[in-house]
Write a structure and sequence with these properties.
20% helix; 3 helices
């Protein structure tokens, strides 16, 4: 049985399609970054917002760092659960952590993190809108980042 998500964490589910696998029948390594992205969209929806709404306000969150550790293989037609949590929220950047498991299992298939800059329409770093920081800061694992 998979562990329940931690407070503030969000789970996203997906079924591996054939096109996500390589010649060996396992999920191609780069697709895990796509799964991270899927979970970020679900995270923002779960927190009452969306990437689209943020972009309409003139903000973007480009990935400036990505890291993935592959522990075990996922295969075609398996249902995966991506657990995402906010690890750090700074004035103009944020860090998310991820764990990917098969649905109903404890074994971590992949874990990693991404760091995102907050930029304005001019492409320069800018602070997050207050409504974003107010909504997300309660999900942080410690008081030091609030």
């Amino acid at each position: 049985m998979a562990p329940p998500p931690e407070s503030g964490a969000v789970e996203a589910r997906l079924r591996v399609i054939y096109g996500d696998t390589d010649q060996m029948g396992v999920v191609y390594y780069a697709n895990y970054l796509r799964y991270f992205e899927l979970s970020r969209s679900e995270y923002f929806r779960a927190k009452g917002g969306s990437y689209a709404a943020l972009e309409k306000q003139g903000f973007a969150l480009p990935v400036v760092e990505a890291h993935a550790e592959y522990k075990a293989s996922a295969r075609y037609d398996e249902v995966l659960v991506v657990t995402i949590r906010l690890l750090e929220l700074r004035r103009a950047s944020m860090r998310f952590g991820y764990e990917i498991r098969r649905e109903g299992e404890r074994t971590v298939l992949c874990q990693g993190h991404t760091v995102h800059a907050c930029i304005g329409r001019d492409g320069k770093p800018t602070g997050f809108p207050p409504e974003i920081t107010d909504r997300l800061k309660r999900d942080l694992p410690s008081q030091e980042n609030r």
